[in-house]
Amino acid sequence: QTVVTQEPSFSVSPGGTVTLTCGLSSGSVSTNYFPSWYQQTPGQAPRTLIYSTNTRSSGVPDRFSGSILGNKAALTITGARADDESDYYCMLYMGSGILVFGGGTKLTVL
Amino acid sequence: QLQLQESGPGLVKPSETLSLTCTVSGDSISSNSYYWGWIRQPPGKGLEWIGSINYSGSTYYNPSLKNRVTIYVDTSKNQFSLKLRSVTAADTAVYYCARQGLTIFRGVTSWGQGTLVTVST
After folding, report:
1. What 3-state class would DSSP assign to B105?
2. Cβ–Cβ gap B106/A52 under 8 Å
């Protein structure tokens, strides 16, 4: 069974740029996996950031961008702020109507 | 403005059936072709997609849960529901209902606030 992989944790300095990735235990992520990205702070429901690789959800600032980098999907945050400190999840479409979340990345801004 | 509200028992006994309903306001389940889904999150862990349905009743389920899950729509009440049979402690989680896109692969566009369901005697 293919697993969706994410970095368990990452840190970024305020004002800095960070790229989080979403890969597969076997194979490469492409646009055909329609990667989407979600932000979640403790005790809150997730918030949708990006869908279909690089389309920002309504109201999401352009500091957040999605792409394919090499064999992985990527979420880049520029000008990191303290309130970007959250858990970030990617989700991939695996075909045949099946969706799979990655394990999430805990982002620290310090 | 779209709102999704989960409702159902917060405590379920092992081996019984977990039943949750999502009431949709600000949109009509039957007026378009959006997918509507359920996602859960065990305490301190990550998100897990459970399954999705559209207004016509087409369903997709997580293969790991498929044998225990049923999702159905009640267009007259503008609700969709989740039933998870033979629950164990591993099914303890916050359960979110969500609106997805016009296609199953579009991802989630809107989330409910979530409801905690504990499986315990």
Report:
1. helix
2. yes
Residue B65, burial from CB neighbour count under 10 angstroms (0-12, 13-18, 19+)? middle
| Nearest CB to B46; choose among A36, A47, A89 | A89
**Interval A11-60: pLDDT, tens:** 999 999 999 999 999 999 999 999 999 999 999 999 999 999 999 999 99
Write a three-state SS string for B40-85.
EECCCCCCEEEEEEECCCCEEECCCCCCCEEEEEECCCCEEEEEEC
User: From B59, which residue of chain A is nearest by alpha-carbon distance?
Assistant: A97
Minimal C-alpha gap between B110 and chain A (Å): 7
Reported as a single tens digit per residue, the pLDDT across B89-100 is: 999 999 999 999
The candidate with the shortest Cα–Cα distance to B117, out of B82, B73, B74, is B82
- Let me know how long chain B is: 121
CA closest to B61 among chain A residues: A98
Question: Mind listing the pLDDT tens digit for each residue in B42-88?
Answer: 999 999 999 999 988 899 999 999 999 999 999 999 999 999 999 99
Mark yes or no for CB contact B96/A46 under 8 Å. yes
Q: Minimal CA–CA distance to B84: which of B40, B24, B47?
A: B40
Residue B108 to residues A69, A87, B26, B117, Cα–Cα distance (Å): 22, 16, 17, 21
Cβ separation A99–B105 shorter than 8 A: yes
To probe the interface with A, which of B6, B108, B110 has the most A CB atoms within 10 Å? B108
